[in-house]
């Protein structure tokens, strides 16, 4: 079967590889000139089933309300006339119950754990090097009450296979000696020993080479303008380089998936959350972290990629706006100086924004939509890097009409809960 994969981020590359291993003729299209050079290159680098919590939770509405009033919160919404955001927001609020948060979190966790296992196997089999670590991730809490709440919440993850230890201040310093140099004080931390870190761009570049060995053709610098349909199936994808015909199409373009889908009248429940990321050169290795982590007060996250430190923060709902200014990174720099003073050379910092494709409930959309040959692999949100390889395997199984190793129902693009309108995917 000839399959056109629309999108060459880490999810698209992993999807192409999974399909090519099954013997399909695979073509990948992306507007960028390199694979995984957009949002996939703008993540904190955490491979973190231990952070699979659904954003839609009983506490989320209060945070969003405070953001609308101008408070500084980790999830921010700027008041603006945006029908798509309003529609997405209504669905998000419907998911903010304790029972929905639990089921959505477990759906994310199952896929994340499955994906992490497959990623490790794939990396070993193909000899992929991407600055990977498996020494866990630290989730740091400055407030005792927040730590206690985190322990209660994390019980759900521990009950389903995550190895998580609660650390006191001295144990935190033993796990990450670089924090001894910082001025931040912590009540404690949850050390998820099954989590890790890695560079998704390096992983994708290496995996793309394996894809080419399997016969995959990458059409980079090619923008998908729209889809064409006869009503029952997709007949072609129109690009700025011409028309693409295939037996099946996989929409794996991250946040842009919703824009492409609109060309055939589909309203995907996927909306971009802009994140801010910087990468700077390490100047003092002893002061730079070797364990990935998140400061849960500021939600600044970090990973060490060899002689570089990646730091990321914020989820801002501002549509497809990618603009940024130095002020947007001030909080990240302040946290870096507080946590790891003297560790990096800020003059070398490279600044990026990325648009995380968020679904209202949290789990991604994987599988066949309402057209006979249009598959979706999008909406992975803040854990797309963690979920990429597992999502690709599930998608390939569904294309081949095989039963996936994990239940694909929570990720179905045509769930009635996700799509109350018949014109949705």
Automatic annotation (TrEMBL):
Residues 405-425 are annotated as: Disordered. Pfam families: DAO. InterPro entries: FAD-dep_OxRdtase (IPR006076), FAD/NAD-bd_sf (IPR036188). Coiled coil: none annotated. Residues 2-398 form the FAD dependent oxidoreductase domain. GO terms for biological process: D-alanine catabolic process. One of its GO terms (molecular function) is D-amino-acid dehydrogenase activity. Residues 416-425 have a biased composition (Basic residues). PANTHER family: D-AMINO ACID DEHYDROGENASE, SARCOSINE DEHYDROGENASE-RELATED. This is D-amino acid dehydrogenase. It comes from Rhodococcus wratislaviensis NBRC 100605.
